[in-house]
Amino acid sequence: MSHNTFGHLFRVTTFGESHGVALGCVVDGCPPGLPLEAAEIQAELDRRKPGQSRFTTQRREPDAVKILSGVFGDDRTGGRQLTTGTPIALVIENTDQRSKDYSEIRDSYRPGHADYTYEAKYGIRDYRGGGRSSARETAARVAAGAIARKVVPGITIRAALVQMGPHAIDRARWDWEEVARNPFFCPDPQAAKLYETYLDGIRKDGSSIGAVIEVVAEGVPPGLGAPLYGKLDADLAAAMMSINAVKGVEIGDGFASAALRGEDNADEMRAGNAGPAFLANHAGGILGGLSTGQPIVCRFAVKPTSSILTPRRTVTREGRDAEIVTKGRHDPCVGIRAVPVAEAMMACVLADHYLRHRGQVG
Fold it and tell me: What is the pTM of this model?
């Protein structure tokens, strides 16, 4: 299986399966001399790990990360662990697999999952929780993202769940502090209350629901990206689309731009003390594939979790019609835990483009 690596100068390779011994990543290209402790990576993983509320999968994984290489510290570094510039290897052990939950469906393709496509391509698949296609793989991305945040100076990356099913937040009530106060990473406290009742009903029905996630990066310097085949927004879209269950991505106003007139869509400017001051940000902080210095705004849609208790029609490996019910422990709304993953992918892309920019223009 190829293509387990993304990035150019800041490169991330992930490995492992949902029900394997462990998963992890190797980060290559991280500059030397950056302070890095396992606790900093752990803080990000703790936001993504399962079993933290009744609204996510009840699989109990501590997601404890170990740094295997790429850092060094002694009395010459003041006791701090610093990156050495060599590959940083991270590992996260799996401790709460229940592979028997999947024994009944090993010969049937789950609708909405990659079971059929994996077998059609490789001739073999790990049916235990989806193997490599499981969203459990995103733990490694979150770990890599914790390192990537250190590469670009002065950057702030935050994400939030802004819609669940048909219920969007009221942006007039947006409060970033609220994101950490509820189990949905939602910036609207009233919407978060609604989601509790709404998702409880979805979960008790044995079903699932989709969501929309918004991720914002502030403090990004202008000029990151390349005008043609290395567009910053193209790489961001590819990174977000690589997250499990993501089916659509937009930058800035995205699809809403199609309904705007030219005078409404173009972000006007006035002279400022530190260069042009933009009067709006319909472009989402990227013009011509290059960052403008404004906040970068990216949004993506996550489909409903395909593992549900409602019987679904399918076929078996032998080509027979069948019905299937997916048992086990699953997220009724996988979009919730996609929030820290979105931040991590934004961080990795920006770190890569920052290093590429520095390498080209100094």
Answer: 0.93
